[in-house]
Amino acid sequence: MIDYLDQERSSFETQRRHVYRIAGALGLLVVLYAQYTLLGDTLTPYIFRAIYSLNHILLAGFTVIILWQLARRRVSLEQIERRMLFFFIFQALFFNGIFPVLFNPAPGKVLAETYGDDIWFLLATCTLAIHFYPSWRGVALALGVYILSVAIVAAQVVQWQLNGIDDGSGARIIQIYTLGGMLLGFMLVMASYRNRLIRIQTEYELLAAIAYTDGLTGLPNRRQLYRDLNRLIAEAERYGHAFCVCLFDVDHFKRINDQYGHMVGDQALRAVGDTVRANLRVVDYFGRWGGEEYCILSPHTNVDQAFSALERVRLALREITDVPIPISASFGVAVYRPGDSAETLLHRADAAMYRAKRNGRDRIESESLEGSDSNHLVGLRQ
Q1: How do the domains of the chain map onto residue ranges?
Q2: Alpha carbon distance 73, 262 (integer Å)
Q3: Which residues are marked as active site?
Q4: What is the predicted pLDDT for the residue at 345?
Q5: Which among 24, 16, 95, 11 has a CA at the least distance from the CA of 55?
Q6: In the chain, where do the E strands start and end?
Q7: What is the model's pLDDT at position 1?
Q8: From CA 11, how far away is CA 20, in angstroms rounded?
Q9: pLDDT for 82-135, tens place per residue?
Q10: Which of 29, 70, 147, 344 measures 20 to 30 Å from 62, CA to CA?
Q11: DSSP secondary-structure letter at 105?
Q12: In whole angstroms, what is the distance from residue 310 CA to residue 178 CA?
């Protein structure tokens, strides 16, 4: 389970790195295009063009550094994300708030820039704060940045009104930021609901995995196999589909534990699980029944087809080289009969398996069938 979670975490981190690389490359192209258009802009005052050019250089340099850190993988992704976040916060506060105050542009121009990209960039930055920091820390950071931006804009509007130059743009700017704050609050609530749903779903999946998975081999355990078996019985009763149940037991497993220790025994159990799973069909159900005993459920399969598949498995087990002594197993097969329950099927498969052990091990035997000339059996002692 821990290995699976580590793999999922590593896969998710790799995907995030790919997304940031693509976003960084696209961002670099946008910055270069913005600088190209700025070079041909003769209407904007020189001081503004110089400041925006310096900012473009800063953006491009920061993007290159982030892409370099993503490629080297020496800095954790969480650190990179937070560096990006604080750089965006600086951009949002300085160029969307402080910069207009310093140069006191006309209210109409500030309104146009607010409509254009200022409010959206600020909301995007606050959203990143919610996602890059856990729980209340992200919320506090997002609200703090937004409130500070609103305070800067409100101070500028008050200054316009005191100087008598407000043409009505101030009220509309405040209205935009108020609506943006409402949208941000909605996103905070939805993020909280989402985090709660994800936590509940994750907890459920973990509990289900623990409840229905064998901890040693990673295979389905007896509880899960009972669920699968009952589902196959229900389908057989409704549609008349044939299926087979096989129980098999690793021969002389106690000898492995006694001679080589339980660590080698555990290694043998995992090797058996991997080998059998690799030699079964995708539609077959396979899991650890308990101890050194395993169970195979073969849907849409008659007894002859089951014997053919199990013979392949039996021979594959004898080729295992991961443990110091040869591995073999004794197999018992039972075919579904109308009216069977899980217990009656398993009882017949278990009886057939013990008959295989009594008859020399390393073999396959089926249940006793009334009216048949003989039992199926396959097995060699070599």
Answers
A1: 2-211, 222-379
A2: 39
A3: 292
A4: 95
A5: 95
A6: 243-250, 285-290, 293-299, 329-335, 363-366, 377-379
A7: 54
A8: 14
A9: 899 899 898 888 876 676 666 667 788 788 878 777 888 888 888 888 888 877
A10: 147
A11: -
A12: 70
According to DSSP, residue 50 is labeled: H
DSSP annotation of 104: -
Q: What is the DSSP string of 286-305?
A: EEEEETTEEEEEEET--HHH
CATH code 3.30.70.270 for 222-379: yes
Amino acid making up residue 137: R
Q: From CA 192, how far away is CA 198, in angstroms rounded?
A: 10
Q: CA torsion sign, 367 to 372 to 374 to 379?
A: negative
What's the whole-model pTM score?
0.58
Grade residue 374 by pLDDT with cuts at 50, 70 and 90: very low
Which of 43-57, 98-112, 224-238 is predicted most confidently? 224-238
SS3 of 155-188: the string is HHHHHHHHHCCCCCHHHHHHHHHHHHHHHHHHHH
Contact 145, 126 (CB under 8 A): yes
Distances (CA, A) of 271 to 63, 275, 317: 48, 6, 9
